[in-house]
């Protein structure tokens, strides 16, 4: 199956010399939900903007549904719907008029039945005659999605889609994204809410300092890189670990009332039996224990931290040299 989005050796350096993207290679499959994660300034929005034809790349090639986004811009852009991070629309227009106008911009013939279905799906039909200025922030966010879908694109980009919306609306949007995927739309989202990626994504990409440091199936990533923590609630608080336990991956938390032991879920021997035996020898008693598996957020934080440390190490080596 051919990728619906193909990014090859993509680099973007701005006029001032700042390199926002460095040799990015990425294929996104039809009908998947792909989450692009990264800290502020990592290059997420620049990557989306290049794919959508808003920003020009310095080098590299991008195709959307087989169309070069530069040489065949109109055909490529017709395949794409974009919901930007910022809310920007004409406040004096009505909801229905602005969605009709967005559809017309792509040369699509009027289709009142489709637009009604779309607005109903987004709980906007009752507001179709309302001016945009009268809508709440959450309704404006829904309207931006309606505009992006007005021309029936095969690809939908959501740049921080739930930024500033309440929990209920966030849940509604998650449900809507799943429905879009079921209808055959490929969804690419960037988000600061890592639980969104964990909840919805089929695959995850992590970008940092303009470099794509990882692309992986979400479940495989969690299984491959995840770990578990054994949390022991102590009867008596500890100020420091005894020397007899110093070789174990233990950490004291909660003002000494909690002992945390980390172990790899891929290892056959977790070491828990040995840990409990040595705790007994050290006369450390606990009243409760439980396990917690690593979340996607834990893995993301570790990846970004490791990438930063590697970058700092290279910089230091370069300065030394």
Oligomer: single chain
**Which percent range fits the helix content?**
25-40%
| End-to-end separation | 47 Å
Order of helices and strands: EEEHEEHEHHHEHEHEEHEEEHEH
* Low-confidence segments: none
What form results from the Cα inertia axes? elongated
Biggest β-sheet: strands ordered side by side in the sheet = 6-7-8-3-9-10
Beta-strand share of residues: 25-35%
CATH class of the largest domain: Alpha Beta
CATH domain fold name of the largest domain: Rossmann fold
> Counting H and I runs of at least 4 residues, what is the number of helices?
10
CATH architecture of the largest domain: 3-Layer(aba) Sandwich
EC number: 3.6.3.-
Pfam family, one: ABC_tran
InterPro entries: AAA+_ATPase, ABC_transporter-like_ATP-bd, ABC_transporter-like_CS, ABC_transporter_ATP-binding, P-loop_NTPase
Keywords: ATP-binding, Hydrolase, Nucleotide-binding, Transport
């Amino acid at each position: 199956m051919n990728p619906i989005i193909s990014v090859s050796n993509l680099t973007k350096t701005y006029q001032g010399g700042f390199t926002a993207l460095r040799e990015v290679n990425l294929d996104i499959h039809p009908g998947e939900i792909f989450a692009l994660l990264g800290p502020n300034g990592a290059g997420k929005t620049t990557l989306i903007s290049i794919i959508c034809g808003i920003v020009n790349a310095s080098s590299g090639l991008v195709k959307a549904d087989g169309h070069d986004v530069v040489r065949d811009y109109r055909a490529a852009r017709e395949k794409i719907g974009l919901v930007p991070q910022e809310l920007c629309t004409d406040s004096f227009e009505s909801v229905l008029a602005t969605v009709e106008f967005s559809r017309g911009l792509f040369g699509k013939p009027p289709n009142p039945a489709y637009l009604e279905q779309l607005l109903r799906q987004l709980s906007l039909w009752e507001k179709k005659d309302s001016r945009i200025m009268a809508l709440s922030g959450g309704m404006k966010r829904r309207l931006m999605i309606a505009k992006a879908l007005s021309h029936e694109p095969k690809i939908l980009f959501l740049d921080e889609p739930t930024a500033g919306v309440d929990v209920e609306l966030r849940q509604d949007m998650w449900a809507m994204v799943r429905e879009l995927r079921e209808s055959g739309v490929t969804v690419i989202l960037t988000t600061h809410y890592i639980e969104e990626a964990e909840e919805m994504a089929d695959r995850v990409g992590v970008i940092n300092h303009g470099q794509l440091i990882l692309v992986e199936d979400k479940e495989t990533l969690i299984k491959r890189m995840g770990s578990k923590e054994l949390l022991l609630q102590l009867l008596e608080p500890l100020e420091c670990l005894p020397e007899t336990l110093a070789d174990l991956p233990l950490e004291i938390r909660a003002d000494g009332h909690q002992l945390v032991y980390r172990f790899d879920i891929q290892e056959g021997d977790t070491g828990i039996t040995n840990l409990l035996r040595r705790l007994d020898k050290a006369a450390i008693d606990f009243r409760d224990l439980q396990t917690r598996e690593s979340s996607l957020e834990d893995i993301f934080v570790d990846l970004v931290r490791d990438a930063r440390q590697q970058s700092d190490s290279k910089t230091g080596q370069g300065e030394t040299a």
